[in-house]
Amino acid sequence: MPIAHSTAEARWSGDLIEGGGTVRSGSGAFPEMPISWSRRTQREQGATSPEELIAAAHSSCFCMAFSNELARAGHPAERIVTAASVAFDTGRPGGAAITSIDLEVRARVPGIDGAAFQAAAEAARAGCPVSKALAGVEIRLRASLETG
User: Fold this and answer.
1) What's the CA gap between 61 and 126, in Å, rounded?
2) Above 80 in pLDDT, residue 44?
3) Residue by residue, what is the 3-state secondary structure of the chain?
4) What CA–CA distance (Å, rounded) separates 6 from 18?
5) pTM for the complete prediction?
6) Which domains does the chain have, with CATH numbers?
7) Is there a contact between 22 and 90 (Cβ–Cβ < 8 Å)?
8) If we measure between CA atoms, which residue out of 7, 9, 84, 86 comes closest to residue 40?
9) pLDDT level of residue 124 (50, 70, 90 thresholds)
10) What are phi and psi of 99, to 5 degrees?
11) How many CB atoms lie within 10 A of CB 55?
């Protein structure tokens, strides 16, 4: 299978604090979005941040990896919902850093028991390509099996 490449482009003008810019995907899958330092540190509305984009990438990749693990175990998922929260710490002595990622997944998976569900979730966390790319960051996982 060939190697797939995804692209994005960011543009920036000005200094870090007062400046700003935009980011857009190469595929056009999402519209050009504003980026700013204040969005990263103060949650300015109407702009995005690298951390928000990482959260989007990680949550979507984890859903795919978890879906694959469940199907391989003979329990295809009916529904998987994953939320990712990326911590960005600006008060570190060595400079700002992404310090952790919390993944919270809820899934409806007919016929699976709790232990097999948790094992598949852990395997997905370890095998998810975005998790692998972010190996230097603590990734915490909370997985909940929905019933009924």
Assistant:
1) 12
2) no
3) CCCCCCCEEEEEECCCCCCEEEEEECCCCCCCEEECHHHHHHCCCCCECHHHHHHHHHHHHHHHHHHHHHHHCCCCCCEEEEEEEEEEECCCCCCCEEEEEEEEEEEECCCCCHHHHHHHHHHHHHHCHHHHHCCCCEEEEEEEEECC
4) 30
5) 0.92
6) 8-42 (no CATH), 50-146 (3.30.300.20)
7) no
8) 86
9) very high
10) -105, -25
11) 19
Contacts of 64 (CB under 8 A, 6+ apart): 128
What are 35's two structure tokens? 């980026």
Is 77 in contact with 109 (CB distance < 8 Å)? yes
Instruction: Check residue 12 and give its pLDDT.
Output: 97
Strand partners, 133: none
Structural Rg of the chain based on CA atoms: 18
Would you say 89 and 97 are in contact if contact means Cβ atoms under 8 Å apart? yes
